[in-house]
Sequence to fold (717 residues):
Amino acid sequence: MPSLPDVMTRDAAALAASAAAARPAPDDPADEVGREPVHEPTRAALVEFLTRMGDNTLVLGHRLSEWCGHGPALEEDIGVANIALDLIGQTQFWLGLAGEVEGRGRKADDLAFLRDVWEFRNVLLVELPNGDYGHTLMRQFLFDAWHVEALRALAASTEVRVAGIAAKAVKEAHYHLEKSADLVVRLGDGTEESRRRMQAALDVLWPYAGELFLGDAVDAVLAEAGIAPDPASLRAAWDATVRPILAEATLRVPDGTFAHKGGRRGIHTEHLGRMLAEMQFLQRAYPGATW
Amino acid sequence: MSSEWPLWEIFIRGQHGLNHRHVGSLHAPDAELAIKNARDVYTRRNEGVSIWAVRSSDIVASSPSDKGPLFEPSNSKVYRHPTFYDIPGDVGHM
Amino acid sequence: MYAQLVKTDATQVRGLDEMPPEERAFQERIDRGEKIEPKEWMPEGYRKTLIRQIGQHAHSEIVGQLPEGNWITRAPTLERKAILLAKVQDEAGHGLYLYCAAETLGVSRDELMELLHAGKMKYSSIFNYPTLTWADMGAVGWLVDGAAIMNQVPLQRTSYGPYSRAMIRICKEESFHQRQGYDIMTKMAGGTPAQKHMAQDALNRFWFPALMMFGPSDKDSVHSAQSMAWRIKMNTNDELRQKFVDQTVPQAERLGLTVPDEGLRWNEDKGGYDFSEPDWSEFFEVIAGNGPCNRERLGARVKAWEDGAWFRDGLKAHADKAVRARMAVAAE
Fold:
């Protein structure tokens, strides 16, 4: 069979070129704001910060990928895989840069597959098990609303490589948020059962959202250098996104301000260790092999 | 069986600025989600810049038995086809 | 193949002279290579056979997500994870295109799903085999997708328009699937002794099940003859199997792996390999539900469907509410 005329897909070479153009600038010292005399505390804080960003997308992308083949409708199965793919792609950038700034020769894969739980820096929210699909969507929505604000601020980072990654990722995150917000509204205001499930998900997950806005010394250093925003500064915009959507979804925001926390310091739920045991299995069982 | 999502026909205009082209169908509860689903299902390889979704039940089609009467008249209008005209070679590209 | 043992209701293939005028005109269109489109007249047997075949093909795509989905969360690098996820996602898309093609014949996707879940429709035997090591991701892409492509490429020219168009789209998207499988095999076969062992082991386990995908010899089958007359089957099972073996054996040699068939040898006269028959009793057991993973595969599909019911119903209810709200505003 002769190959068919390809009328819909752009030339792969052109796609690759545009992907390369979108990619943040490679390690070019001249580009790098933070590196003329590198301030050691800043470098350490930057590594920590990049690890947090990358671990969030890695862990959440992994969780979403668990749905592949098990989604509630074929169209949704395909849709959630797109989001997982975006997040895994972002992970390659964040952890790749983390390894580069760290300067110990570790690649994104080394960081993803060869660190133990206590070295992971994602928020607890993203490592929670998927639960039902409503739980997955609610977790996604709470995360996406933060992700968009965080990336928008980071796109203006004084660290050009950070700004480059964020500028690309924020477009993807916008789409993720549009989708998750829409589904939260529809399912909240759907059937009695869908509303009950979405409310149950919100009740469980709400106390995990607060950690996204808790700053520490690392954040203070980076905010001071104009590299990353103070997490607390994102809260108002997040509320302005999240609360009207939840109201439209006819869902009740739980009372109380308690926030589960620890992930950003490496103190996790029991769930993450199990996830890593699965995710890292091959790299751990066959050290040094190439795949 | 619970009520099935209706079927939608999806049309996409690709990168080349050509007309929207029928690419396939999908299920969605309403038009807005049909567009969102179409983005996920039919533009996974960056194929499109604009999407139309039309309820399959709203498509009005010529009936197959009309094939003769509808299309044969235009068969005889050969003057609509560029190759009908003999243009001298020295006129150049036309 | 993704559709195996598809029945046609035919007891014999009739000649043009034996057909009533309408059917004769239909058959002549097919013989001229014309496409049959939805809502055009077609023999009931053609319609039913296509529903069985396209439905089975669609089911195979979505059940086929599961053996590879089994390794997405264990993929060894971020890039492998993304590639595998994209591939399994494509399979969901291919199932979707095929269900839509079947729907043009007057059966809904939900009806087909329920038939699958009730065990009244089949999917390809191959997906009832387990994926035990990472090398199986290589073997599945290389052998299973390789075998599927053998069938799908000619099906782009099938007589039924929507099926043909779905196959064209699928073939275009699948071009990377087999390559990524072979790429994994190359890494494994050229890797550490343990990796090489896994690669050989995967080939050993998947070789004969891959040959079974084409189905038993159908040179005497009236169903196949009828399907070929209708151009919804383009080659005999034996032709495709031979072509697959001839193409795949050199690829295995290139990997330094041994095809697990002592009867395999080059036959100069026919310009192809002689090879041993798969164990067809195993094939029929797998088809009958006794494969290693039948229960898990069907169970996973049923669970996804049942667990997703509230989601599908919730979205439908919201859409209906929105329509009612718009009507109420308009009526004011």
